[in-house]
Amino acid sequence: MTIEDTPPPPASADRVRVRRRTAAAIAAAVVTLGLLGAVLAASLHPAHLEWYRADGQALEVEVCRGSGEAVAWSRVTETGEQIVVDIELFTTMPPGLPRNAMATCDLVRLELDAAVDGRTVVTPEGTALRALP
């Protein structure tokens, strides 16, 4: 029997090989996304907030960020009694390195559904922010 006379492998062997490669690719993608998610989660942290200024139906909140940090998101949740301001920072620096040597403070403007009108403005942890005139 020569090589030309050798019958081709059954079609099921090809399907098994393709399935194994597909499963390996999916597993590699899941592991990669998990690692990327862990790195992203470690790079996010809440901003330190102290004061706000009410401007009609908006709040201006001072956010100080260090070297290599940027505002990842800012959002506000309103209830009848309080306004919760949530601002998260993203850092590109490894954990443990000081980031505040070159701190830059900016105002973040958040639009409200209604004016502050005596409601308490707090952080997600419940710390009240000071109002400036």
Describe the structure.
The protein has 133 residues and is an alpha/beta fold. Helices cover 25% and strands 37% of the residues. The strands form two sheets. Strands 1, 4, 5 and 7 form a four-stranded mixed sheet that branches. The protein has a four-stranded mixed sheet with strand order 6-3-2-8, with no helix packed on it. A hairpin with a 3-residue loop joins β2 (51-54) and β3 (58-65). The longest helix is centred in the first third of the chain and has 33 residues, at 11-43. The mean pLDDT is 86.
Outline:
Helices cover 25% and strands 37% of the residues.
Write the layout of secondary structure elements.
Layout: H1 11-43, E1 44-46, E2 51-54, E3 58-65, E4 69-78, E5 82-91, E6 104-111, E7 120-122, E8 130-132
Parallel strand pairs: 2-8, 5-7
Antiparallel strand pairs: 1-5, 2-3, 3-6, 4-5
